[in-house]
Amino acid sequence: KSANPQWREQFDFHYFSDRKDMLDIEVWRKDNKKHEELLGTCQVDITALPMKQTNCLELPLEKHPGSLLMLIAVAPCTGVSISDLCVCPLGDPSERQQIAQRYRIKNSFRDMKDIGFLQVKVLKAVDLLAADFSGKSDPFCVLELGNDSLQTHTVYKNLNPEWNKVFTFPIKDIHDVLEVTVFDEDGDKPPDFLGKVAIPLLSV
Asked: Which among 43, 53, 56, 168 would be 20 to 30 A from 181, CA to CA?
């Protein structure tokens, strides 16, 4: 019920060089759970922004009245990685020793924001729901921790996909919950939900 909403939300997008350079933004209006209306879109060219500084942008919505006020900072991606199982980070004993030293109790107050990191190995799924008429699915897996999100590639026509990927997240809040969701890729349509599991960090 507001024409001037304030969200004050922060999202971290892990921008890699092989991705497209445009950030697409959509603003939606919700009447109820079933009815949604697009209020406007805008784009930000990430490559045009100066590095290592916070950029204050007022973005007019295309073909619609109104604008979006955003703060966008482009910074080197630290603490986040996606790799194959065969080249898993932390596999080197000397690297593990450096990390153990970094997070020793006597060093815990050196950087209060450096809580630690979470490494997740996504191996495979078994006996997934068949979402296609062919009796198969095109599954991919999305991992979310706080407002951080990473995903696997899609394995086509398979109910027992193997991804064998390693994801590393920086931890910003020890009370966060890792949510792992499996979707079925459905072309240009929104993906179909195949299942989900939630793992509180405090249980690890």
From this structure: 43
